[in-house]
Amino acid sequence: MTYFDTHAHFYGNTSPAEHAMVMKRALEAGVTQLLAVGGSADLNSGAIAVAKAFPAQARLALGFDRDQTKDADPETLVQTLRLLAKDLSVVAVGEMGLDFHYHPETADAQAALFAAQLRLGDEWKKPVIIHTREADETTLRILDETPWHGKGLRGVVHCFTGDKHFASQLLDRQLAISFSGIVTFKSADMLRESATFVPDERLMIETDSPFLAPVPHRGKANEPAFVRHVAACLATVRKTDESAIASLTYRNAETLFASAPSF
Ligand SMILES: [Zn+2]
After folding, report:
1. Ligand 1 centroid from CA 208, angstroms
2. Shortest CA distance to 46 belongs to which of 11, 85, 14?
3. Which residues hold their Cβ within 5 A of ligand 1, which is an ion?
4. What is the pLDDT of residue 263?
């Protein structure tokens, strides 16, 4: 069985030897592909390091998340992405998005940075990786206000934690939905119900490592090797087998994050 972990983070100051061990354990667990996802200066540099060192196993996404609004305005951050992406094969923009749970006070700045990166994704014709927490309406409004000229899917909402209603609104807007280890948590009944609702061709899996280790690894540092627990949980709630989930989520990720230009 092979897996595509569509969302893994790496710190820029982690040693190459440690990255290599994480990637080796991933490969041993069947994670033959992963998306190394940026989000801050540090996470972008970690993602670049891993994508360069493991070109056959890792693809690259660069972006600035909702916590990066303090240090620079959106245009400066987008300009930084343009410079970083030069001479690199970037398959997606992200992560980006809104989190009004932790930082409602920066809502306007988060929205401006999110919109600026959606426009960059549209310009580059690259899919976007969206984080959204307690910000359903603003997320939908900004998506609706921002043009998308590409064909096919626009991107993915990662680490989905919403209900069926929000899932259907995102599916209506040409997005895929990715589930993380949160779906395995005991308290996540509502989320498991959402997971039964997403159609096969829009479903993805991720670890969001090193955060959010799934059951039975809760409390430990998460890593891409653990993505199979997400696949196993989705297989149970969707009444299918793990190999079916592994292969359909792999195919979906392969299509959305194609290495070669696909638009
Ligand atoms: Zn993330």
Report:
1. 5
2. 11
3. 95, 208
4. 38
Separation between Cα atoms, residue 32 and residue 57, nearest integer Å: 6
Q: How far is the CA of 159 from the centre of ligand 1 (A)?
A: 8
pLDDT < 70 regions, the chain: 260-263
Q: How far is the CA of 9 from the centre of ligand 1 (A)?
A: 7
Q: Burial level of 86, CB count in 10 A (0-12/13-18/19+)?
A: exposed
Cα(37) to centroid of ligand 1, in Å? Answer: 7
Q: Which domains does the chain have, with CATH numbers?
A: 3-256 (3.20.20.140)
Q: Strands across the sheet with 31-39, in order? A: 3-8, 31-39, 58-64, 90-99, 128-133, 155-157, 175-179, 203-205
User: Which parts of 14-167 are beta strand (E)?
Assistant: 31-39, 58-64, 90-99, 128-133, 155-157
pLDDT of residue 86: 93
Distance 48 CA to ligand 1 centre (A): 15
Output the CA 235–ligand 1 centroid distance in Å.
23
How many other CB atoms sit within 10 Å of the CB of residue 65?
23
Task: Kindly give the distance from the C-alpha atom of residue 197 to the centroid of ligand 1, in angstroms, as a whole number.
Answer: 23
